């Protein structure tokens, strides 16, 4: 089978990028011929699975003389927000991607086009290739864009509705897709998330020295709950040597990152900034820690939580829509303590006055997790990229 993969942004720097790359690995493993169209920077290498033909769309050169357009307002690399696209920039975006898409389709003649994010580029693909089989993956950031940004709303909605199949991460997300795009529920399939079991596994690297180590992985930003996580430690009453917080990830916004670094200096416990880490190094961090904390204000299905569970961590996380239900189904008995979100505005922004109570709740859940001690093992074997890749191909056979 011939599969063309499409994403508007870098294919290896975010959760959706990992999703895309892992699926390509699975398709390659069973011999499918593939190509990729993605937005990248000319000075950077883009590691891809073997035998995947690459059709890069280069930003910051030519008519695309601006940074990559990111699905999140704050990306882990220089980016342009969709809301800031001018009509001229939008035309350059469309022309640049269509040039590479046309070349890829001529060369590969794909049986299936897989588009990541239910947003502008996926709409362009659907319109431009009306006779091709086109599937779309939802990654939640696309839903946030539709809720927050007026860019081409009617055009995007109309084209997404015409996709042959849409994949959602969980049941709550499926309902939101139905509401936003007016897509029949029969066209949407819940597919979930996988993880790399070869890298993320319990290797017992924890040291019995009386210190509880708490890990976070993701963008070091306010919307990821990092400020609130640091402040929540003020509510713990352990000796300063008893707790350590390790933050893995880069800046979404440099000014905000520096503010968080300054806040960490006032924390009663040691806070270490690890920067962006390769997956194998991140797995070592999970394995050296006792608790994984993710207090994001908005997520689809956080891959980092699954990875941390696979490495034997207890988890403290926000009670995000649809996530608890999904984890209870696919990782029953997982040692997770959920924190009720603060009052929200604009989908992913907390009302400031509600943050102190939110941070007290985080502190309480962390205390409960510290006191619980040893983590009980959880079976995450049902969560595999192999299974998800198989589901995609199964749907293709049913819709052909």
Describe this structure in words.
- The chain is built from 13 helices and 17 strands.
- The relative contact order is 0.11.
- Strand 11, helix 8 and strand 12 form a beta-alpha-beta unit.
- The strands form 4 sheets. A 7-stranded parallel sheet has the order 3-2-1-6-7-8-9, with helices on both faces.
- Helices cover about 40% and strands about 20% of the residues.
- The chain has about 400 residues and is an alpha/beta fold.
- It starts with a strand and ends with a helix.
Helix content range: 25-40%
Shape: globular
How many separate helices? 13
Average the pLDDT over all residues and give the rounded result: 93
How would you characterize the largest beta sheet? 7 strands, parallel
Instruction: Give Rg in angstroms.
Output: 21 Å
Low-confidence stretches: none
Order of helices and strands: EHEEEEHEHEHHEHEEHEHEHEHEHEEEHH
Structure summary, number of beta strands? 17
Distance between the termini: 13 Å
Helix/strand/pairing class, anyone? alpha/beta
Strand content: 15-25%
Q: Report strand order across the widest sheet.
A: 3-2-1-6-7-8-9
């Amino acid at each position: 089978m011939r599969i063309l993969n499409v994403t508007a942004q870098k294919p290896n720097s975010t959760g959706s990028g990992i999703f895309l790359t892992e699926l390509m690995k699975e398709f390659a493993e069973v011999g499918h011929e593939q190509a990729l169209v993605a937005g990248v920077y000319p000075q950077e290498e883009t590691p891809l699975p073997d035998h995947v033909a690459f059709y890069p769309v280069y930003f910051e050169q030519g008519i695309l003389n601006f940074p990559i357009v990111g699905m999140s307002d704050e990306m882990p690399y220089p980016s342009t927000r969709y809301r800031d696209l001018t009509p001229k920039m939008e035309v350059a975006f469309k022309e640049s991607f269509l040039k590479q898409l046309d070349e890829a389709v001529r060369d590969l003649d794909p049986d299936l086009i897989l588009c990541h994010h239910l947003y502008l580029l996926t709409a362009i693909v659907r319109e431009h290739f009306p006779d091709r089989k086109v599937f779309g993956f939802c990654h939640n950031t696309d839903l946030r864009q539709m809720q927050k940004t007026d860019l081409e709303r009617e055009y995007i909605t109309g084209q997404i509705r015409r996709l042959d199949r849409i994949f959602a991460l969980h049941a709550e997300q499926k309902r939101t897709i139905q509401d936003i795009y007016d897509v029949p529920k029969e066209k949407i399939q819940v597919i979930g998330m996988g993880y790399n079991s070869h890298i993320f596994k319990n290797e017992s690297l924890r040291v019995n020295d009386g210190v509880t180590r708490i890990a976070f992985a993701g963008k070091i930003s306010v919307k990821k709950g990092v400020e609130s996580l640091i402040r929540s430690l003020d509510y713990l009453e352990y000796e300063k040597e008893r707790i350590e917080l390790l933050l893995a990830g880069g800046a979404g916004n440099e000014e905000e990152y520096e503010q968080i670094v300054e806040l960490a200096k006032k924390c009663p416990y040691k806070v270490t900034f690890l920067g962006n880490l390769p997956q194998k190094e991140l797995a070592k961090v999970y394995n050296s820690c006792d608790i994984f904390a993710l207090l994001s204000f908005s997520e689809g299905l956080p891959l980092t939580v699954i990875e941390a569970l696979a490495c034997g961590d207890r988890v403290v996380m926000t009670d995000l829509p649809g996530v608890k239900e999904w984890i209870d189904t696919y990782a029953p008995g997982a040692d997770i303590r959920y924190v009720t979100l603060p009052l929200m505005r604009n989908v992913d922004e907390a009302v400031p006055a509600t943050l102190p109570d939110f941070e007290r709740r985080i502190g309480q859940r962390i205390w409960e997790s510290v006191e619980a001690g040893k983590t009980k093992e959880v079976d995450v074997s049902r969560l595999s990229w192999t299974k998800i890749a198989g589901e995609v191909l199964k749907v293709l056979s049913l819709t052909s």
